[in-house]
Amino acid sequence: MTAHTGSALGLFALTLALPALAADVPGSQDPAGVKRYTGSEIIGFRAAKFDEFVLPLGPPTEISPPKFAKSLKVDGLISRYTYAAPAGRSPAEVFRNYQLEFQRLGLTTLYQKGTAERGWFGPTLSQVSEEDQIGQILEYNEAQERLLVAKSKDAKPTYFYLFVTSYKDGVIPERLQSAVQKDIVLAELIVIAPQAMEKNMTLLNAAEMSKSIDDLGKVVLYGINFDLDKDTLRPDSEPTLKEIGKLMTDNPRLSIHVVGHTDNQGKPDYNLDLSRRRAAAVARELTSKYGVAAARMDSFGCGPYAPAASNTSEEERAKNRRVELVRW
């Protein structure tokens, strides 16, 4: 449980500091800690999903499937964001802003391609474009392509793929006809974040939960996740919630405190309130969807005030973002 997902990235420059716009794709949001170029709107989006991705470290040698002179295959929670910049901006301007901010965030550059270097990368994004339903808007302006691949300095790094171009030709979906016109600058940002915890720490079954409660009076859970800065449960929380429901069914005399915890990123009062709202959301979900009597639960939030580990690295902060079930 956290007020942030992915790496803690700090603040972007003022040119990349506006909040989400009303024109954004419904349900989309900027990656945690990463601010968009001023006035841009999200026209393509895929929420984080575990997958593999081939990061180019050299020019393309094949288009479909994409292959490169040099590459790095990574896996993790992959999220994708397609931005349309305001009219009148240039690809060079947008790209330079991202360069500066990647530097400010302390990211390590793995590969960079400007207009002077060889390589036509747009067509290598055809599968991404198809899945995110953005047509061919990224594919046909080789002369304006710019590419930046970078990673964080965490022990388990987050990788960033940034592709900037401007629209020249190609099929535009009907929904994007007003947003994408000739020479509009487009930025495709792909973030590959490590899974917060190993799988054997993420999902405990009902029997394992019961044993921990018997032995310790509580069980620590890492498989309950929320939308960024919200108390909305994400669909990938369902396996853990289902096991909690089974735990309560199998142990009809058990009553629990649902306790939320966060890391130390952000203001303590904000995280405290968020942890309380998220714990309450878990209790409500267990009652409404899994039939656990409300009288057998209450909820409480500790925010950052009861850490399970230090907050000195993303790996350690991940251990603090958790839900605990404590026996009454």
Give me the secondary-structure topology.
Elements (H helix, E strand, L loop, with lengths): L40 E16 L3 E3 L4 E2 L2 E14 L6 H14 L3 E6 L12 H6 L14 E6 L7 E8 L18 E9 L5 H4 L3 H11 L1 E4 L16 H13 L5 E6 L6 H21 L8 E7 L10 H7 L1 E6 L1
Parallel strand pairs: 10-11
Antiparallel strand pairs: 1-4, 2-3, 4-8, 5-6, 6-7, 7-8, 9-12, 10-12
Helix pairs in contact: 4-5
Description:
This protein is of the alpha+beta class and 328 residues long. The chain is built from seven helices and twelve strands. It has helices at residues 91-104, 126-131, 199-202, 206-216, 238-250, 268-288, 314-320, and strands at 41-56, 60-62, 67-68, 71-84, 108-113, 146-151, 159-166, 185-193, 218-221, 256-261, 297-303, 322-327. The strands form three sheets. It has a six-stranded antiparallel beta sheet, with helices on one face. The chain has a four-stranded mixed beta sheet with strand order 9-12-10-11. Strands 2-3 form a two-stranded antiparallel ribbon. A hairpin with a 7-residue loop joins strand 6 and strand 7. The radius of gyration is 22 Å and the shape is elongated. The two termini are 22 Å apart.
